[in-house]
């Protein structure tokens, strides 16, 4: 186990982007595999769906997530300038970073980006309309579930995990979260597309 940790640390130091791309893509794909195994939406395994999840994790989320955690790590809120102890200042900084992550990144970047990009990757006739339908149907419920799961974990992550490993720790924990997202994304998938198609046909007739 120690040798794996050392090799991964070396890869992160030498090639941080490509290492995060590979690991994030693999773990997003694992989440979709778990979703299809536990909550199958059809009798046949959808390999293209897993490939979409892997592509999203590696090409879209990995670079954005890595930059986001490094940005938050560099930001120090001015609690140290007040009359409080250094340990209290550190705790308040960590709590503020978790709040920023959960009140800005999750609702306005992470969740909308996932539903939009994954809808586009499905190559529907009207992908943006499908994305809007899915966001309208699932954004708030996904956000509420996110707030149940992630704040406590991110508090641990920001407080104890070195910045270069934070995305990896998030991705390992995210196998279950990605399973949830994938099942929500593909829930009543066909009915959403049918609704969009019906709207388009009505507009053409008008």
From TrEMBL:
Lineage, opening ranks: Eukaryota, Fungi, Dikarya, Ascomycota, Saccharomycotina
Naming one, the record's GO cellular component terms include: mitochondrion
Q: What's the chief localization of this chain?
A: membrane
Q: Which family does it belong to?
A: Belongs to the peroxisomal membrane protein PXMP2/4 family.
Q: Where are the transmembrane segments?
A: none
Location comes to: Membrane
> Which membrane topology describes this protein?
Multi-pass membrane protein
Query: Which superkingdom, per the lineage?
Result: Eukaryota
To which species is this protein native?
Debaryomyces fabryi
Against InterPro entries, the record matches this protein to:
Mpv17_PMP22
Q: Any idea which UniProt keywords this protein has? A: Membrane, Transmembrane, Transmembrane helix
Q: Does the keyword Transmembrane apply?
A: yes
Question: One of this protein's Pfam families, by short name?
Answer: Mpv17_PMP22
This protein is called: Protein SYM1
